[in-house]
Amino acid sequence: MASSLSTMKFPKGYSFRFLSSKLVELQPTSRCRRNCIALRRSYTFSINISRNFSQCHSRNSLPNKDQIPSLRDFIPKATQTVPASDVQPEPMTISDVMPRGRIYHETYGCQMNINDMEIVLSIMKNAGYTESVDVPESAEIIFINTCAIRDNAEHKVWQRLNYFWFLKRHWKSNVAIGRSQSAHPPKVVVLGCMAERLKDKILDSDKMVDVVCGPDAYRDLPRLLEEVDYGQKGINTLLSLEETYADINPVRISKNSISAFVSVMRGCNNMCSFCIVPFTRGRERSRPVESIVKEVAELWKEGVKEVTLLGQNVNSYNDTSGIENTVEPAVSWELSDGFSSMCKVKHVGLRFADLLDRLAIEFPEMRFRYTSPHPKDFPDDLLYVMRDRYNICKSIHLPAQSGSSAVLERMRRGYTRKAYLDLVKKIRDIIPDMGISSDFICGFCGETEEDHKDTLTLVKAVGYDMAYMFAYSMREKTHAHRNYVDDVPEDVKQRRLTELIETFRGSTGQFYDAKIGTVQLVLVEGPNKRAPDTELIGKSDRGHRVSFANLPILDKVDNNGKRNPKIGDYVEVHVTKSSRASLFGEALAITKLSSFYNTLHEETVAFASRT
Fold this sequence. Notes:
By secondary structure, the chain is an alpha/beta fold. It contains 22 helices and 24 strands.
């Protein structure tokens, strides 16, 4: 094999390596790759044409048009020994010059990070990186999208970075034994909140990472990756007051999913003392309503039936793009009754209630959810829109964090225990069947046993469908880190967390049991993992998991008799059992979202007239 290769002619600047006894890969050398990059830059006539060319000019002067080199000026550098007669006349495309690498990606943290990863994939696709792989061993580029909210999330990221470093540092031996199938050692890219918070530590970690890119700098990723080819680290963690990626059409990670996330705003102005988000995500800014409507319309064409609107503080949405024409200067920002905010809103545009109302009207057969809101931004207008639009799900995430007014004050939440309970009462007065979920932190700085008991009694008083509960972990840069002492011992935090979880479980079951005997509209998501051959599962309007037997039922949509429900169908389900964490029932019919609620409304009116 080697002797036969010695008789073959390869262009100078290229080398070959054995992939197997019969397979050889032709690779450009590092010098050739650098020249190819320069060629690509000159081809687009960028001002910064290439590093070699820029060295020939003063930093204080720019080349005029006549000084810009043509494609011919670079060809001898890449093919110095190839005779002119051997050069093919066909035009050379960028993909011919330098094939793009395959991408592998992992995401940790919230739904916002999932949506961010879809934005990143879209940016990379537009730059020519069109292929993704399912395992890091086959990738030339590895993206890891990180979360900095809690310590556990960061530990997981460091563990994965250690493995990616192993794939990179021992690439040759990994290829030799078949562990890796990438064409060259992978470039490791850290994205997201942890990238901004720990950028210096990450880059200093024994050449573990090649690129660090913050949440507002994803458009810069193709350039940062090119910097790595010059032997440099790529870093951009600048925060923006304007970036919303409104013009980016995300590449959906779950291609056949009937649900999707749509980011409507970014950043947070609340400055809660425990939270790192304002320092990693920056200040609040909202996308224009029209760009959101356009994205949702595209999702509807793709078959998506449920959209979750995302934002770090989603219900503080404020579209001021048309403020000079549509909003009176005297309009003030209305908060929930009894709530305050450290940040004053200077200009009031279209608010979250306006956005929800517009989407609900324009897409009557699509469900809408949203997360994560702040309790301070639930004015009456928002609650009335949720009540009046059947396709806005009757489920609100209402993060309490603590049931103690003293702890809430140290957290800088802007409300008391009483104000929170009053808001819960108002929500359920306006929308009686509203499901409520929450967030809780155990063992925040200075929390006493009495404070902890206040949280337990709040959970019992409200009654939550679902809750995220965590032991407090101090984050650098936060107000708490600068001003408080993390003085609750870890064992006490864990004991309080256990008690909180037990209290939650003891109170949540009643809301599932109350659904027995009712008919719920369920959006089918797929087979039930516990019985994949015989059962389907989906979510009700309130967010409860509902499973049912996969049998032929009446099809009210096409009036074609009976058929088995499929993913994306809305199915009427008569609930017969509750596990106090999920529901089971009998499927009655396949229907449309609007038809179900129109019928429900007609039956309610008829019943009221009889009584």
